[in-house]
């Protein structure tokens, strides 16, 4: 601290810098008699002996040289500066992955830096999404806290199977703090999604409770009203003939039991909440409170019960704030945990939730890759809500392990993984369809859920999309539709499952979260293809699988359908992607396409006495051959995404606050406290 009294008492400090500049001081400054001083004095004398003209010339020369010096310094500095910038850029695009050229370069441009694309096409700006023509009710102030830091760090290092090199860990740590980058995706970690603090926290509250700033409700429009009507009709069938059972059989007016856990009812809970169906919701809630019992000697599929039941309960808890749903979620979560007790910690496919035992299917010790890697959003959220790290630890270990496995092809994964060895099996077959689909979806969504800090997930996702471009993308004839085929032992097949239609939505979500705008271009091309999978078919409904024509043939469309593939199970993937595309672009054509699809569901799958049914033949409008089954995801996903697609309220499940699990149950994105 500066004190005025102390300053006055102390002797003045001599500043000898003035000696060299002031001739008076230099001359009269006795006592400073060394050779340097002498040389300075003699220079001064010589200067004094020069004529005025000579001095002026010398001064002018000095001034001239000084100006030249400054100019040449700044112009030399530029190359150095740009060199430094370039080397930083190079570092940002690490790690380089060989062979990332597109299989069909004509389809899409090579990946570019995100910010480079921004200038070209502001509509596709990943950082600033285009303003859709929505009625914005203003941002809500949801504050969703990330899980305790110690949970996440421990899981990263505790794994017994994955031994991390300290250097790698160090590198990761550094990456987490600075710029996240991967081949063209340069992302500054969001301020609002910084890693959480290491403080131990109380279990978290539901997001609805923390939502401040409630806005005026946006009125429901005509198309949304039509979705509500469709939902009510489906619900009527379920209520009348299948109440409390897993699935409605609308034609035989009965039900199908799979796990015996009221699957449709639980899957539909948050849809009812979102659609504003209070009465129906209350009735269903009563059933959950009084009749939903997990203490049952029954085998359930880990993946299906996680995404539909655990996911459904968690999202309903968040939307309603009703702790009943969290209690039920904890119960089923705990009962599913025995699945992870395997030699490799890759979970078994089936669990007996009453006995607490787990096992693989009878014919193999393999699990499906999509299944073991698409339960993470739910278990991680359960850890965050309960403060119990075991759920997250178990599923993070699976991801960590899969990250290190060999047998991938440019980020594309095989379809099976062995629960004993932990290795991929049935190598050489790569698809974005059944058995692999949601692996890719959950890489991106976990990264988003966790606040965009878990770089391995992003790396694997980006690598995989490059793998898709390199090996699986082709264009059909005659319409030149971009589609995602399959690769079996080096042979390309032009087969595409309807399930793959989740991909445009996922790509668009990635672009919205700052990934390269190139992904958005691919999303736009693929959603057109998915729409054509409906539009080119006689009923206007997509079959389960299509084959695309690679060569133009007179009278042939792009889409060919084999007899065994012409069923439609009321699946959601195309409508799901239409929803994302509309949210991010505001292009009404996506709503119109969804509207056509809803009308065709009504025309060909609606059962007059209540409910909707899967059909066997999308190519026969006069007899689509009803299958007598309404899948739970029709209520859980298809109708929910329809309702959201037709909505102009971007705060109706805001995609910057929620991430949908693969069964369309929205879970909060974590942000720091
Ligand atoms: C749903 O259970 C989920 O969307 C899952 O990821 C894929 N299959 C069905 C819907 O088609």
From TrEMBL:
The chain crosses the membrane at residues 56-76. The keyword Hydrolase applies. Its cofactor is Ca(2+). Ca(2+) binds at residue 662. Keywords: Calcium, Disulfide bond, Endoplasmic reticulum, Glycosidase, Hydrolase, Membrane, Metal-binding, Signal-anchor, Transmembrane, Transmembrane helix. Its EC number is 3.2.1.-. The active site is at 304 (proton donor), 437, 544 (proton donor), 573. Residues 85-217 are annotated as: Disordered. The keyword Metal-binding applies. One of its GO terms (biological process) is carbohydrate metabolic process. It catalyses: N(4)-(alpha-D-Man-(1->2)-alpha-D-Man-(1->2)-alpha-D-Man-(1->3)-[alpha-D-Man-(1->2)-alpha-D-Man-(1->3)-[alpha-D-Man-(1->2)-alpha-D-Man-(1->6)]-alpha-D-Man-(1->6)]-beta-D-Man-(1->4)-beta-D-GlcNAc-(1->4)-beta-D-GlcNAc)-L-asparaginyl-[protein] (N-glucan mannose isomer 9A1,2,3B1,2,3) + 4 H2O = N(4)-(alpha-D-Man-(1->3)-[alpha-D-Man-(1->3)-[alpha-D-Man-(1->6)]-alpha-D-Man-(1->6)]-beta-D-Man-(1->4)-beta-D-GlcNAc-(1->4)-beta-D-GlcNAc)-L-asparaginyl-[protein] (N-glucan mannose isomer 5A1,2) + 4 beta-D-mannose; N(4)-(alpha-D-Man-(1->2)-alpha-D-Man-(1->2)-alpha-D-Man-(1->3)-[alpha-D-Man-(1->3)-[alpha-D-Man-(1->2)-alpha-D-Man-(1->6)]-alpha-D-Man-(1->6)]-beta-D-Man-(1->4)-beta-D-GlcNAc-(1->4)-beta-D-GlcNAc)-L-asparaginyl-[protein] (N-glucan mannose isomer 8A1,2,3B1,3) + 3 H2O = N(4)-(alpha-D-Man-(1->3)-[alpha-D-Man-(1->3)-[alpha-D-Man-(1->6)]-alpha-D-Man-(1->6)]-beta-D-Man-(1->4)-beta-D-GlcNAc-(1->4)-beta-D-GlcNAc)-L-asparaginyl-[protein] (N-glucan mannose isomer 5A1,2) + 3 beta-D-mannose. GO terms for molecular function: calcium ion binding; mannosyl-oligosaccharide 1,2-alpha-mannosidase activity. It is a single-pass type II membrane protein. One of its GO terms (cellular component) is endoplasmic reticulum membrane. Involved in glycoprotein quality control targeting of misfolded glycoproteins for degradation. It primarily trims a single alpha-1,2-linked mannose residue from Man(9)GlcNAc(2) to produce Man(8)GlcNAc(2), but at high enzyme concentrations, as found in the ER quality control compartment (ERQC), it further trims the carbohydrates to Man(5-6)GlcNAc(2). This is alpha-1,2-Mannosidase. It comes from Ibidorhyncha struthersii. The gene is Man1b1.
């Amino acid at each position: 601290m500066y004190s005025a009294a102390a300053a006055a008492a102390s002797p003045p400090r001599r500043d000898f810098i003035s000696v060299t500049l002031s001739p008076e001081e230099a001359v009269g400054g006795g006592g400073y008699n060394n050779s340097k001083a002498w040389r300075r004095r003699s220079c001064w004398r010589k200067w004094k002996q020069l004529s005025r003209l000579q001095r002026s010339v010398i001064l002018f020369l000095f001034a001239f040289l000084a100006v030249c010096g400054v100019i040449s310094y700044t112009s030399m500095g530029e190359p150095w500066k740009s060199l430094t910038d370039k080397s930083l850029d190079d570092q940002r695009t690490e790690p380089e992955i060989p062979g990332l050229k597109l299989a069909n370069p004509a389809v899409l441009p090579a990946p570019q830096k995100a910010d480079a694309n921004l200038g070209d096409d502001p509509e596709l700006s990943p950082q600033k999404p285009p303003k859709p023509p929505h009625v914005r009710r203003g941002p809500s102030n949801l504050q969703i806290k990330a899980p305790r830091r110690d949970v996440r760090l421990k899981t990263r290092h505790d794994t017994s199977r994955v031994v991390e090199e300290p250097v790698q860990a160090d590198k990761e740590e550094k990456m987490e703090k600075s710029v996240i980058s991967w081949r063209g995706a340069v992302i500054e970690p969001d301020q609002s999604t910084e890693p959480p603090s290491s403080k131990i926290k109380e279990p978290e509250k539901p997001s609805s409770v923390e939502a401040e700033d409630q806005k005026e409700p946006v009125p429901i429009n005509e198309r949304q009203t039509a979705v509500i009507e469709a939902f009510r009709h489906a619900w009527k069938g379920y209520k009348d003939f299948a109440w409390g059972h897993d699935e409605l059989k609308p034609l035989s007016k009965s039900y199908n039991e799979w796990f015996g856990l009221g699957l449709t009812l639980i899957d539909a809970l948050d849809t009812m909440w979102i659609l504003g169906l209070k009465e129906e919701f209350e009735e269903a809630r009563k059933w959950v409170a009084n009749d939903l019992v997990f203490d049952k000697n029954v085998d359930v599929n880990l993946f299906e019960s996680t995404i539909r039941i655990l996911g459904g309960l968690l999202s309903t808890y968040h939307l309603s704030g009703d702790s009943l749903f969290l209690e039920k979620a904890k119960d089923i979560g705990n009962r599913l945990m025995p699945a992870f007790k395997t030699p490799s910690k890759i979970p078994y496919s089936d669990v007996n939730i009453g006995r607490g035992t787990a096992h693989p299917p009878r014919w193999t010790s393999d699990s499906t890759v999509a299944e073991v890697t698409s339960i993470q959003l739910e278990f991680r959220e359960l850890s965050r809500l309960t403060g119990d790290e075991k759920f997250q630890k178990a599923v993070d270990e699976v991801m960590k392990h899969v990250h290190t496995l060999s047998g991938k092809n440019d980020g594309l994964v095989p379809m099976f993984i062995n629960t004993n060895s932990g290795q991929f099996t049935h190598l050489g077959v790569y698809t974005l369809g059944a058995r692999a689909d949601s692996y890719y979806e959950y890489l991106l969504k976990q990264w988003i859920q966790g606040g965009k800090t878990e770089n391995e997930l992003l790396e694997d996702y980006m690598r995989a999309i490059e793998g898709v471009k390199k090996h699986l993308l082709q264009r059909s004839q005659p319409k030149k539709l971009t589609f995602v085929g399959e690769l079996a032992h080096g042979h390309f097949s032009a087969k595409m499952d309807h399930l793959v239609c989740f991909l445009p939505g996922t790509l668009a979500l990635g672009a919205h979260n700052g990934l390269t705008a190139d992904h958005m271009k691919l999303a736009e091309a693929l959603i057109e293809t998915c729409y054509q999978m409906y539009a080119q078919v006689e009923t206007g409904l997509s079959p389960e699988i299509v084959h695309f024509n690679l060569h133009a043939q007179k009278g042939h469309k792009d889409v060919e359908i084999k007899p065994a593939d012409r069923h439609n199970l009321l699946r959601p993937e195309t409508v799901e992607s239409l929803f994302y595309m509309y949210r991010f672009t505001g292009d009404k054509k996506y709503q119109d396409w969804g509207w056509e699809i809803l009308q065709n569901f009504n025309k060909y799958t609606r059962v007059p006495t209540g409910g909707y049914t899967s059909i066997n033949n999308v190519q026969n409008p006069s007899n689509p051959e009803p299958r007598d089954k309404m899948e739970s995801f029709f209520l859980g996903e298809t109708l929910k995404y329809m309702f959201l697609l037709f909505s102009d309220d971007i705060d109706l499940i805001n995609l910057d606050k929620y991430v949908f699990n693969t069964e369309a149950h929205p879970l909060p994105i974590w942000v720091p406290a």
